[in-house]
UniProtKB/TrEMBL annotation:
<feature type="binding site">
    <location>
        <position position="84"/>
    </location>
    <ligand>
        <name>phosphoenolpyruvate</name>
    </ligand>
</feature>
<keyword id="KW-0762">Sugar transport</keyword>
<keyword id="KW-0418">Kinase</keyword>
<feature type="binding site">
    <location>
        <position position="219"/>
    </location>
    <ligand>
        <name>phosphoenolpyruvate</name>
    </ligand>
</feature>
<keyword id="KW-0813">Transport</keyword>
<dbReference type="GO" id="GO:0009401">
    <property type="term" value="P:phosphoenolpyruvate-dependent sugar phosphotransferase system"/>
</dbReference>
<dbReference type="GO" id="GO:0046872">
    <property type="term" value="F:metal ion binding"/>
</dbReference>
<keyword id="KW-0808">Transferase</keyword>
<keyword id="KW-0479">Metal-binding</keyword>
<keyword id="KW-0670">Pyruvate</keyword>
<dbReference type="GO" id="GO:0016301">
    <property type="term" value="F:kinase activity"/>
</dbReference>
<feature type="binding site">
    <location>
        <begin position="208"/>
        <end position="209"/>
    </location>
    <ligand>
        <name>phosphoenolpyruvate</name>
    </ligand>
</feature>
<feature type="binding site">
    <location>
        <position position="185"/>
    </location>
    <ligand>
        <name>Mg(2+)</name>
    </ligand>
</feature>
<keyword id="KW-0598">Phosphotransferase system</keyword>
<keyword id="KW-0963">Cytoplasm</keyword>
<comment type="similarity">
    <text>Belongs to the PEP-utilizing enzyme family.</text>
</comment>
<keyword id="KW-0460">Magnesium</keyword>
Length: 326
């Protein structure tokens, strides 16, 4: 129940001065696809695929995955669907995988680290299903790799991509290599963003993890909740650096952490230069309405001041002043 009813924009929106900003939804269940559509999302900016692997006895096979990815593409035949490869470990255990007991799972074997190691077989099956889904029918399929920390991990993931494509080719199975991207959610990835961006078509900033790792403040720990705020100057500067690196290397750049769904931060995010924002479906109408009121030049000028702020209070003060001037 929202306090005010915001109109649903089914069409893509632009800022007041005509810059297109893609507004997509984050989903983690097939049932959420229709809701994303109903709220006017242009596509899916983050499809968390863990649901396929949870609450079951064994991993889903290629056909089951293929069908799940096709369903997403069919829901958005004119939009982009960004599927994240399996991100387990950390806060996302899977009983049948026999994950190691780690003292610090968030700093342990999670995301791409498992896909390039103990879960290589799952990774290959998932890529096969994705490449087959990308070949059929309408829609633009993209895939991105989670928790990347080094360019070498990306090189290894891209080698797997090549190998899977060659195998499908040899087997005479229809496939297409989707648009490829990397999630920026570790400080290592921020500092390596130029080298990462030059190898892929896009970057997507995961501010939930990026904030936790930049501030060294765990996601579920209430005692450090105050530190874990993406409006902190260190986090904003990490985001800004990532966006510059993407654009200098001809990659587009989006954001799919919770931060992207806060309409009070939309002007800041557009001013920073993001091309796409992906969020919970419920916030799509509000963010689309906000984008339409933004002047990109003013937003960029305001960002310069926000990036110079040395404390979170100054950042918040600047954001609030800018929002009330709209
Ligand atoms: C993130 O880390 O910001 C993100 C979008 O991924 P998840 O919340 O699934 O870790
Ligand atoms: Mg994450």
């Amino acid at each position: 129940q929202t306090a005010h009813q915001v109109e649903i924009h089914e069409e893509a929106v632009t800022t007041a001065d005509g810059t297109g900003i893609e507004i997509a939804a984050n989903v983690g269940q097939p049932a959420e696809l229709e809701d994303a559509k109903a709220q006017g999302a242009d596509g899916i900016g983050l499809y968390r695929t863990e649901f396929l692997f949870l609450d079951r006895e064994q991993a889903p096979d290629e056909t089951e995955q293929y069908e799940a990815y096709r369903e997403a593409l069919e829901t958005f035949p004119d939009g982009r669907v960004v599927v994240r490869t399996l991100d387990i470990g950390g806060d996302k255990p899977i009983p049948y995988l026999d994950l190691p007991e780690e003292e610090n799972p968030f700093l342990g074997e999670r995301g791409i680290r498992r896909s390039l190691g103990p879960d290589a077989d799952l990774f290959e099956t998932q890529l096969r299903a994705l490449f087959r889904a990308a070949a059929d029918g309408d829609g633009c399929l993209s895939i991105m790799f989670p928790v990347v920390a080094t360019p070498k991990e990306l090189v290894a993931a891209l080698e797997t991509v090549e190998r899977i494509a060659n195998t499908l080719e040899e087997e005479g199975i229809d496939y297409a290599i989707p648009e490829l991207g990397v999630m920026i959610e570790t400080p290592g990835a921020v500092f390596a963003a130029p080298e990462l961006a030059e190898q892929v078509e896009f970057l997507s900033i995961g501010t939930n993890d990026l904030t936790q790792y930049v501030m060294a403040a765990a996601r579920e720990n209430e005692r450090v909740a105050d530190l874990r705020d993406p409006r902190r100057p260190a986090v904003l500067r990490a985001i800004s650096r990532t966006i510059k690196a993407a654009h200098e290397n001809d990659a587009w750049v989006g954001m799919c952490g919770e931060m992207a769904g806060n309409p009070e931060l939309t002007e800041l995010l557009v001013g920073l230069g993001l091309d796409e924002l992906s969020m919970s479906a419920v916030t799509v109408p509000d963010v689309k309405a906000t984008v339409q009121s933004i002047d990109t030049e003013t937003a960029a000028e305001n960002v310069t001041r926000a990036l110079e702020a040395s404390t979170r209070d100054h950042v918040i003060d600047r954001i609030q002043r800018n929002n009330s001037n709209q």
